[in-house]
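User: I'm putting together notes for a lab meeting next week and I want to include a structural view of one of the chains we've been expressing. I don't have a solved structure, so I'd like a prediction I can at least talk through. The sequence is below, exactly as it appears in our construct file.
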Amino acid sequence: MSLELEIGKRDVWIFGSRKGQFYDDNSKYLFQYILKYKPEIYPVWVTKNPAVFEKLNYENLPVALAGTPRSDAIMSLAKCAFINIIQLDVDKTKLKKETQVVQLWHGTPMKFNDISQFKERYDLVSLASTLFLNEQALGPHHLFDFQVTGYPRNDFLLNDDLPSFVDKQTLEKLRNKKVISFLPTYNEEKDETKSGDKRGKSYAIWQGLDLTKLNQILEQNNAIFVIKLHPLQSPSGCEVQQALEHCNNVLIIDPLDPFADVYQYLKYTDVMITDYSSVLFDYLLLNKPVIFSCFDLDTFILKRNLRFDYNQITPGKKTSNWSEVLEQIQHIFEYGGDGFDKQRQEVCKTFNFYQDSQSCERIYQLAKKLPIDSSKNL
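Assistant: Thanks for the context. Below is the predicted structure for the 378-residue chain, given as C-alpha coordinates.
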Protein backbone atom coordinates (compact mmCIF):
# COMPACT_ATOMS: atom_id res chain seq x y z
CA MET A 1 0.00 0.00 0.00
CA SER A 2 1.32 3.43 -0.91
CA LEU A 3 1.97 6.02 1.81
CA GLU A 4 -0.78 8.25 0.43
CA LEU A 5 -3.36 5.48 0.69
CA GLU A 6 -2.10 4.51 4.13
CA ILE A 7 -2.48 8.07 5.43
CA GLY A 8 -5.73 8.86 3.64
CA LYS A 9 -7.23 12.17 4.73
CA ARG A 10 -5.61 12.13 8.14
CA ASP A 11 -3.21 14.82 9.37
CA VAL A 12 0.38 13.61 9.79
CA TRP A 13 1.95 14.31 13.19
CA ILE A 14 5.58 13.37 13.82
CA PHE A 15 7.28 12.71 17.16
CA GLY A 16 10.87 12.39 18.34
CA SER A 17 13.03 12.51 21.44
CA ARG A 18 16.54 13.49 22.48
CA LYS A 19 18.16 14.20 19.13
CA GLY A 20 16.38 11.27 17.56
CA GLN A 21 18.22 8.66 19.59
CA PHE A 22 15.72 7.72 22.31
CA TYR A 23 12.14 6.54 22.66
CA ASP A 24 11.01 8.20 25.86
CA ASP A 25 9.63 11.20 27.71
CA ASN A 26 6.71 13.47 26.82
CA SER A 27 6.90 12.81 23.09
CA LYS A 28 6.55 9.07 23.65
CA TYR A 29 3.49 9.34 25.87
CA LEU A 30 1.71 11.78 23.59
CA PHE A 31 2.56 9.56 20.61
CA GLN A 32 1.04 6.54 22.37
CA TYR A 33 -2.04 8.52 23.33
CA ILE A 34 -2.67 9.80 19.79
CA LEU A 35 -2.09 6.34 18.39
CA LYS A 36 -4.63 4.77 20.75
CA TYR A 37 -7.35 7.42 20.94
CA LYS A 38 -7.17 9.67 17.84
CA PRO A 39 -7.78 7.70 14.63
CA GLU A 40 -8.14 10.94 12.66
CA ILE A 41 -4.40 11.57 13.14
CA TYR A 42 -1.59 9.64 11.47
CA PRO A 43 1.20 9.67 14.10
CA VAL A 44 4.75 8.62 13.20
CA TRP A 45 7.79 8.26 15.43
CA VAL A 46 10.85 9.61 13.61
CA THR A 47 14.20 8.26 14.81
CA LYS A 48 17.85 8.32 13.79
CA ASN A 49 18.57 5.23 15.89
CA PRO A 50 18.31 1.91 13.97
CA ALA A 51 17.69 0.04 17.24
CA VAL A 52 14.65 2.20 18.00
CA PHE A 53 13.40 1.79 14.46
CA GLU A 54 13.77 -1.99 14.57
CA LYS A 55 11.96 -2.39 17.89
CA LEU A 56 9.03 -0.09 17.08
CA ASN A 57 8.71 -1.63 13.64
CA TYR A 58 8.66 -5.09 15.25
CA GLU A 59 5.90 -3.84 17.59
CA ASN A 60 4.00 -2.79 14.48
CA LEU A 61 4.07 0.88 15.49
CA PRO A 62 4.28 3.65 12.87
CA VAL A 63 7.96 4.58 12.75
CA ALA A 64 10.32 6.09 10.20
CA LEU A 65 14.12 6.00 10.05
CA ALA A 66 15.45 9.49 9.36
CA GLY A 67 17.18 9.85 6.02
CA THR A 68 15.20 7.14 4.26
CA PRO A 69 12.77 7.90 1.41
CA ARG A 70 9.79 6.97 3.59
CA SER A 71 10.93 9.33 6.33
CA ASP A 72 11.52 12.15 3.85
CA ALA A 73 8.02 11.67 2.47
CA ILE A 74 6.48 11.71 5.95
CA MET A 75 8.43 14.82 6.92
CA SER A 76 7.13 16.58 3.81
CA LEU A 77 3.54 15.83 4.84
CA ALA A 78 3.83 16.60 8.57
CA LYS A 79 1.44 19.20 9.93
CA CYS A 80 2.84 19.04 13.49
CA ALA A 81 6.15 17.98 15.02
CA PHE A 82 6.41 17.18 18.73
CA ILE A 83 9.80 17.37 20.46
CA ASN A 84 11.27 17.15 23.97
CA ILE A 85 14.46 19.22 23.64
CA ILE A 86 15.29 20.63 20.18
CA GLN A 87 14.25 20.16 16.57
CA LEU A 88 17.01 17.55 16.16
CA ASP A 89 14.64 15.25 18.07
CA VAL A 90 13.10 14.66 14.66
CA ASP A 91 14.80 15.10 11.26
CA LYS A 92 15.53 18.83 11.45
CA THR A 93 17.07 18.98 7.99
CA LYS A 94 13.75 17.94 6.43
CA LEU A 95 11.47 19.95 8.73
CA LYS A 96 9.31 22.26 6.63
CA LYS A 97 8.58 25.85 7.59
CA GLU A 98 4.88 25.04 7.36
CA THR A 99 5.13 22.29 9.98
CA GLN A 100 3.99 23.46 13.40
CA VAL A 101 6.56 22.66 16.08
CA VAL A 102 5.24 21.81 19.55
CA GLN A 103 7.87 21.99 22.29
CA LEU A 104 6.78 19.54 24.99
CA TRP A 105 9.99 20.15 26.95
CA HIS A 106 11.43 17.61 29.37
CA GLY A 107 10.53 18.84 32.81
CA THR A 108 9.63 21.71 35.10
CA PRO A 109 13.02 23.34 35.68
CA MET A 110 14.54 23.81 39.11
CA LYS A 111 17.52 25.62 37.57
CA PHE A 112 17.51 28.65 35.26
CA ASN A 113 17.35 28.02 31.51
CA ASP A 114 15.93 29.79 28.46
CA ILE A 115 14.68 27.88 25.41
CA SER A 116 15.49 30.83 23.13
CA GLN A 117 19.14 29.76 23.45
CA PHE A 118 18.44 27.09 20.83
CA LYS A 119 17.48 29.75 18.26
CA GLU A 120 14.57 27.66 17.00
CA ARG A 121 10.92 28.41 16.44
CA TYR A 122 8.28 26.69 18.55
CA ASP A 123 4.65 27.38 17.76
CA LEU A 124 3.46 26.00 21.08
CA VAL A 125 5.33 25.34 24.33
CA SER A 126 3.68 23.18 26.98
CA LEU A 127 4.06 23.94 30.68
CA ALA A 128 2.94 22.24 33.87
CA SER A 129 2.67 25.34 36.05
CA THR A 130 1.38 28.91 35.72
CA LEU A 131 4.58 30.02 37.49
CA PHE A 132 6.36 29.78 34.16
CA LEU A 133 3.94 32.04 32.33
CA ASN A 134 5.35 35.20 33.88
CA GLU A 135 8.21 35.69 36.34
CA GLN A 136 9.75 32.27 35.66
CA ALA A 137 9.19 32.27 31.88
CA LEU A 138 11.33 29.89 29.84
CA GLY A 139 11.75 32.48 27.09
CA PRO A 140 10.36 35.70 25.56
CA HIS A 141 6.58 35.73 25.14
CA HIS A 142 6.79 37.45 21.75
CA LEU A 143 8.64 34.42 20.41
CA PHE A 144 6.73 31.55 22.01
CA ASP A 145 3.13 30.65 22.75
CA PHE A 146 3.30 29.23 26.27
CA GLN A 147 0.34 27.10 27.35
CA VAL A 148 -0.29 25.40 30.67
CA THR A 149 -1.31 21.87 29.72
CA GLY A 150 0.52 19.51 32.03
CA TYR A 151 3.01 16.93 30.76
CA PRO A 152 1.94 13.82 28.80
CA ARG A 153 4.26 11.56 30.78
CA ASN A 154 2.37 12.44 33.96
CA ASP A 155 -0.85 11.10 32.45
CA PHE A 156 0.84 7.71 32.59
CA LEU A 157 1.60 8.16 36.30
CA LEU A 158 -2.07 8.87 37.00
CA ASN A 159 -3.86 6.64 34.49
CA ASP A 160 -3.54 2.85 34.37
CA ASP A 161 -5.26 2.66 30.98
CA LEU A 162 -2.42 4.27 29.01
CA PRO A 163 -0.10 1.91 27.10
CA SER A 164 3.09 0.79 28.77
CA PHE A 165 6.26 -0.73 27.38
CA VAL A 166 7.66 -2.06 30.64
CA ASP A 167 9.00 -5.49 29.76
CA LYS A 168 7.50 -8.46 31.60
CA GLN A 169 10.81 -9.35 33.22
CA THR A 170 11.08 -5.91 34.81
CA LEU A 171 7.48 -5.95 35.97
CA GLU A 172 8.10 -9.32 37.58
CA LYS A 173 11.03 -7.86 39.53
CA LEU A 174 8.85 -5.05 40.84
CA ARG A 175 5.80 -7.17 41.57
CA ASN A 176 4.86 -7.31 45.27
CA LYS A 177 7.99 -5.31 46.14
CA LYS A 178 8.47 -1.98 47.83
CA VAL A 179 10.32 0.13 45.28
CA ILE A 180 12.96 2.70 46.19
CA SER A 181 14.19 4.76 43.24
CA PHE A 182 17.39 6.79 43.27
CA LEU A 183 17.21 9.50 40.59
CA PRO A 184 19.95 12.12 40.92
CA THR A 185 20.59 14.99 38.54
CA TYR A 186 23.89 15.61 36.78
CA ASN A 187 26.30 17.46 39.05
CA GLU A 188 29.39 18.34 37.03
CA GLU A 189 31.43 19.41 40.04
CA LYS A 190 30.52 16.25 41.94
CA ASP A 191 30.75 13.73 39.12
CA GLU A 192 34.30 14.09 37.89
CA THR A 193 36.53 11.40 36.47
CA LYS A 194 40.18 10.91 37.30
CA SER A 195 40.98 11.46 33.62
CA GLY A 196 39.00 14.70 33.46
CA ASP A 197 36.38 13.20 31.13
CA LYS A 198 33.30 15.43 31.20
CA ARG A 199 31.00 12.41 31.47
CA GLY A 200 31.04 11.70 35.17
CA LYS A 201 31.99 8.28 36.49
CA SER A 202 29.92 8.68 39.65
CA TYR A 203 32.81 8.29 42.09
CA ALA A 204 31.37 10.82 44.55
CA ILE A 205 27.72 9.75 44.28
CA TRP A 206 28.29 6.56 46.24
CA GLN A 207 30.77 7.90 48.78
CA GLY A 208 29.88 6.63 52.24
CA LEU A 209 27.22 4.14 51.14
CA ASP A 210 27.20 1.07 53.40
CA LEU A 211 26.22 -1.77 51.06
CA THR A 212 25.72 -4.22 53.90
CA LYS A 213 23.28 -1.88 55.63
CA LEU A 214 21.47 -1.16 52.36
CA ASN A 215 21.02 -4.86 51.67
CA GLN A 216 19.72 -5.47 55.20
CA ILE A 217 17.06 -2.78 54.76
CA LEU A 218 16.05 -4.12 51.35
CA GLU A 219 15.77 -7.71 52.58
CA GLN A 220 13.91 -6.79 55.78
CA ASN A 221 11.33 -4.77 53.87
CA ASN A 222 11.03 -6.93 50.72
CA ALA A 223 12.24 -3.94 48.73
CA ILE A 224 14.14 -3.32 45.51
CA PHE A 225 16.53 -0.42 44.88
CA VAL A 226 16.16 1.10 41.40
CA ILE A 227 19.00 3.31 40.17
CA LYS A 228 18.73 5.64 37.18
CA LEU A 229 21.60 8.08 36.80
CA HIS A 230 21.66 11.10 34.51
CA PRO A 231 22.70 10.30 30.89
CA LEU A 232 25.91 12.32 31.38
CA GLN A 233 26.92 9.94 34.15
CA SER A 234 28.51 6.63 33.31
CA PRO A 235 26.52 3.54 34.42
CA SER A 236 29.69 2.17 36.01
CA GLY A 237 33.10 3.34 37.09
CA CYS A 238 33.56 2.77 40.81
CA GLU A 239 33.76 -0.24 43.12
CA VAL A 240 30.50 0.49 44.94
CA GLN A 241 28.46 0.75 41.79
CA GLN A 242 30.07 -2.34 40.34
CA ALA A 243 29.08 -4.16 43.52
CA LEU A 244 25.52 -2.82 43.21
CA GLU A 245 25.30 -4.24 39.71
CA HIS A 246 25.64 -7.74 41.16
CA CYS A 247 22.99 -7.37 43.88
CA ASN A 248 19.77 -9.30 43.32
CA ASN A 249 17.65 -6.62 44.98
CA VAL A 250 19.14 -3.75 42.97
CA LEU A 251 18.00 -2.77 39.49
CA ILE A 252 20.30 -0.41 37.57
CA ILE A 253 18.79 1.27 34.54
CA ASP A 254 21.32 2.12 31.85
CA PRO A 255 20.83 5.85 31.16
CA LEU A 256 22.11 5.34 27.61
CA ASP A 257 19.54 2.66 26.80
CA PRO A 258 17.22 4.31 24.23
CA PHE A 259 14.20 2.65 25.87
CA ALA A 260 15.26 3.34 29.49
CA ASP A 261 12.26 5.44 30.46
CA VAL A 262 12.36 6.29 34.14
CA TYR A 263 8.61 6.98 34.24
CA GLN A 264 7.93 3.29 33.72
CA TYR A 265 9.52 2.74 37.13
CA LEU A 266 8.45 5.97 38.81
CA LYS A 267 4.83 4.86 38.60
CA TYR A 268 5.59 1.93 40.92
CA THR A 269 8.02 3.77 43.21
CA ASP A 270 7.16 3.91 46.92
CA VAL A 271 10.08 6.11 47.99
CA MET A 272 12.13 8.38 45.75
CA ILE A 273 15.64 9.59 46.53
CA THR A 274 16.89 12.59 44.59
CA ASP A 275 19.04 15.67 44.99
CA TYR A 276 18.22 18.50 42.56
CA SER A 277 16.33 16.71 39.79
CA SER A 278 13.12 18.22 38.44
CA VAL A 279 11.61 14.72 38.38
CA LEU A 280 10.59 15.71 41.89
CA PHE A 281 7.76 17.90 40.61
CA ASP A 282 6.23 15.04 38.65
CA TYR A 283 6.58 12.54 41.47
CA LEU A 284 4.73 14.90 43.81
CA LEU A 285 1.57 14.01 41.88
CA LEU A 286 1.68 10.61 43.59
CA ASN A 287 2.14 12.15 47.07
CA LYS A 288 4.68 9.55 48.17
CA PRO A 289 7.77 10.07 50.34
CA VAL A 290 10.86 11.78 48.93
CA ILE A 291 14.30 11.71 50.55
CA PHE A 292 16.63 14.49 49.44
CA SER A 293 20.25 13.39 49.06
CA CYS A 294 21.46 16.99 48.93
CA PHE A 295 24.87 16.16 50.39
CA ASP A 296 26.56 19.20 48.79
CA LEU A 297 23.64 21.63 49.04
CA ASP A 298 25.60 24.69 50.15
CA THR A 299 28.19 24.25 47.40
CA PHE A 300 25.62 23.42 44.73
CA ILE A 301 23.52 26.51 45.45
CA LEU A 302 26.60 28.72 45.13
CA LYS A 303 27.62 27.22 41.77
CA ARG A 304 24.20 26.73 40.17
CA ASN A 305 21.56 29.39 39.74
CA LEU A 306 18.35 27.93 41.16
CA ARG A 307 14.98 29.49 40.33
CA PHE A 308 13.58 28.87 43.79
CA ASP A 309 14.54 28.56 47.43
CA TYR A 310 15.53 24.90 47.60
CA ASN A 311 14.19 24.37 51.11
CA GLN A 312 10.79 25.80 50.18
CA ILE A 313 10.19 23.43 47.25
CA THR A 314 11.52 20.17 48.67
CA PRO A 315 8.97 18.63 51.07
CA GLY A 316 10.83 15.80 52.69
CA LYS A 317 13.82 14.85 54.81
CA LYS A 318 17.07 16.60 53.81
CA THR A 319 20.07 14.34 54.30
CA SER A 320 23.78 15.09 54.32
CA ASN A 321 25.13 11.56 53.80
CA TRP A 322 24.11 8.02 52.89
CA SER A 323 23.83 6.97 56.54
CA GLU A 324 21.00 9.48 57.01
CA VAL A 325 19.36 8.33 53.77
CA LEU A 326 19.28 4.72 54.94
CA GLU A 327 17.92 5.75 58.35
CA GLN A 328 15.11 7.66 56.66
CA ILE A 329 14.24 4.73 54.39
CA GLN A 330 13.91 2.50 57.45
CA HIS A 331 11.84 5.15 59.22
CA ILE A 332 9.41 5.45 56.29
CA PHE A 333 8.89 1.69 56.08
CA GLU A 334 8.56 1.33 59.84
CA TYR A 335 6.01 4.13 60.29
CA GLY A 336 4.26 3.92 56.90
CA GLY A 337 5.22 7.43 55.79
CA ASP A 338 7.36 10.45 56.49
CA GLY A 339 4.90 13.05 57.80
CA PHE A 340 5.28 15.39 54.80
CA ASP A 341 1.97 14.59 53.07
CA LYS A 342 0.43 18.06 53.43
CA GLN A 343 3.63 19.85 52.44
CA ARG A 344 3.89 17.70 49.30
CA GLN A 345 0.33 18.56 48.35
CA GLU A 346 1.01 22.28 48.69
CA VAL A 347 4.18 22.21 46.60
CA CYS A 348 2.46 19.97 44.07
CA LYS A 349 -0.30 22.57 43.61
CA THR A 350 2.35 25.17 42.84
CA PHE A 351 4.19 23.13 40.23
CA ASN A 352 1.30 21.12 38.74
CA PHE A 353 -1.67 23.30 37.83
CA TYR A 354 -3.49 20.21 36.59
CA GLN A 355 -3.49 17.06 38.69
CA ASP A 356 -5.47 14.82 36.39
CA SER A 357 -4.60 12.56 33.46
CA GLN A 358 -5.78 14.88 30.69
CA SER A 359 -2.53 16.56 29.63
CA CYS A 360 -2.36 14.66 26.34
CA GLU A 361 -5.92 15.65 25.49
CA ARG A 362 -5.25 19.32 26.25
CA ILE A 363 -2.18 19.34 24.01
CA TYR A 364 -4.08 17.52 21.28
CA GLN A 365 -6.88 20.08 21.34
CA LEU A 366 -4.41 22.97 21.10
CA ALA A 367 -2.24 21.36 18.43
CA LYS A 368 -5.07 20.55 16.06
CA LYS A 369 -6.08 24.24 16.09
CA LEU A 370 -2.62 25.47 15.10
CA PRO A 371 -2.58 27.27 11.72
CA ILE A 372 -1.12 25.59 8.67
CA ASP A 373 1.60 28.21 8.20
CA SER A 374 4.09 29.67 10.65
CA SER A 375 5.73 33.06 10.67
CA LYS A 376 7.76 32.68 13.86
CA ASN A 377 11.48 32.47 13.28
CA LEU A 378 14.45 33.24 15.51
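A couple of points you could mention at the meeting. The chain has two domains: 3-157+357-367, 163-351. Residues 191-201 have pLDDT under 50 and may be disordered.

User: Perfect, that's what I needed.
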